[in-house]
Amino acid sequence: MTQPNGWIPPDTVGDVGPNHYVQAVNSSIRVFGKTGTALTSVIGLPTLFAGRGAPCGTSDDGDPIVLYDQWADRWLISEFCLTPDPPHQIFAISQTGDPTGSYYLFDFVMPNSKMNDYPHFGVWSDAYYMTDNQFTSAWAGAGVFAFDRTKMLAGDATATYIYFDQYTIDSNRGGQL
After folding, report:
1. Which residues contact 97 (CB under 8 A, 6 or more apart)?
2. What percentage of the chain's residues is helix, strand, coil (to nearest 5)?
3. 39: β partners
4. CA 20 to 30 Å from 108, out of 6, 78, 127, 128?
5. Is 143 helix (H, G, I), strand (E, B) or coil?
6. 5 — pLDDT class (breaks 50, 70, 90)
7. pLDDT tens digits, 92-148
């Protein structure tokens, strides 16, 4: 997929489910069938998140993540939103196993006004886990998050997260996956 905005680096990510491959290239996504046939046009992440409204529903900040949740047969698409202060992490969770369908949208404010750079995710049966490299005006260590997967899969807007600031344990920690 060609990145329409020409971002460098392109931050190419994707994941494979039973019937689809979903690819993100910095600020856009595209869904493919397992044979490689494009099932959607290139979709800007602001289009996917538009239902959240401003500022994050219109952000184009990048560092996307695409994961297939095999336990729930759902898709997780996420990116950071740096427009407001403090920054946010926004999510789209597919309502079914079809990544071309509808999504539940979530917007989580990051704690301590720390920028959530280089987010990485894991899917587990009890939570969606995220690590990030945090910045204020300088390096601020690593953050570890557990997002309420059960509520997110149900589209429950009261979903929250648990956060651990690794900087308080070891100021050199970072780059955790």
Report:
1. 17, 18, 19, 73, 74, 75
2. 10, 45, 45
3. none
4. 6
5. strand
6. low
7. 999 999 999 999 999 999 998 899 999 999 999 999 999 999 999 899 999 999 999
Residue 66, classified by CB atoms within 10 Å of its CB into exposed (0-12), middle (13-18) or buried (19+), is: buried
CA–CA gap between residue 64 and residue 24 (Å, rounded) = 6
**What backbone phi and psi angles, to 5 degrees, belong to 59?**
-75, 160
Q: Could you give the CA distance from residue 165 to residue 100 in angstroms, rounded to a whole number?
A: 36
> What's the one-letter identity of residue 44?
G
Cα–Cα dist 126/11, whole Å: 28
Q: State how far the Cα of 86 lies from the Cα of 65, in Å rounded to an integer.
A: 20
pTM of the model as a whole: 0.93
- Model confidence pLDDT, tens digit, residues 51-77: 988 889 888 887 899 999 999 999 999
Q: How far apart are CA 2 and CA 80, in angstroms?
A: 21
* Cβ–Cβ < 8 Å for 27, 65: no
- One-letter amino acid of 74: R
